[in-house]
UniProtKB/TrEMBL annotation:
CDD domains: cupin_HutD_N. This is HutD family protein. Pfam families: HutD (PF05962). Gene3D superfamilies: Jelly Rolls. PANTHER family: PROTEIN VES.
Length: 190
């Protein structure tokens, strides 16, 4: 089963640290900013600063616009996102500061509760067809250009900047054809 979430259904909410706003694309049923299992969002980062504390959560951050950002975690590890669709994976409880490389950026965030959910985030720059891997939930987002969903039941074109949500994806059931894609696989821990 699949659902297409269009941009008019995305919600704009304040950052947890109050220093900006995020566009929430999807969150688990009943989830709130203070208590959720998984959450997908986008944010514009317009100045250097500290990231919100999400202790107990895992963060995956994808560069989707701009010339890049350095993420320094706990005054130690640095993730550098220079290119479109570069991904950083880090502990949400780290003291993380973002330093812009050359002007503002936009990022795509996947934040998951470490105890309740595991996540895999993949990005694909070039046009290709890929089989969707097995997962409890799979989300696909295209930065530019429509992409095609093909299943044994039908084919459907999904517009760019719309979020596709697949429930209980099984290997070989669904293929996706497109470019500049972010694919998120969520497996709920039981």
């Amino acid at each position: 089963m699949f659902t297409v979430i269009s941009p008019e259904h995305f919600k704009t909410i304040p950052w947890k640290n109050g220093q900006g706003e995020t566009i929430e694309l999807a969150i688990n049923d009943g989830g709130t900013l203070a208590d959720f299992i998984w959450r997908l969002s986008m944010a514009n980062v317009v100045e250097d600063g500290f990231f919100s504390d999400f202790s107990g959560y895992q963060r995956n951050l994808v560069l989707i616009a701009g010339k890049g950002i350095n993420l320094q975690h706990d005054d130690n590890k640095i993730d550098t996102l220079h290119h479109l669709l570069d991904v950083a994976n880090f502990d949400g409880g780290c003291r993380t500061i973002g330093n812009l490389l050359d002007g503002e950026i936009t990022d795509f965030n996947v934040i998951t509760d470490k105890e309740k959910c595991s996540v895999v985030v993949e990005t694909f720059k070039e046009q290709q067809t890929l089989e969707v891997n097995p997962a409890d939930l799979c989300f696909i987002y295209s930065l530019s250009g429509a992409f095609q969903l093909t299943s044994y039941q039908n084919q459907q074109i999904i517009k760019a900047k719309h979020l596709l949500k697949l429930s209980a994806a099984k290997a070989g059931d669904v293929t996706i054809t497109g470019q500049k894609l972010i694919v998120v696989y969520l497996t709920l821990n039981t």
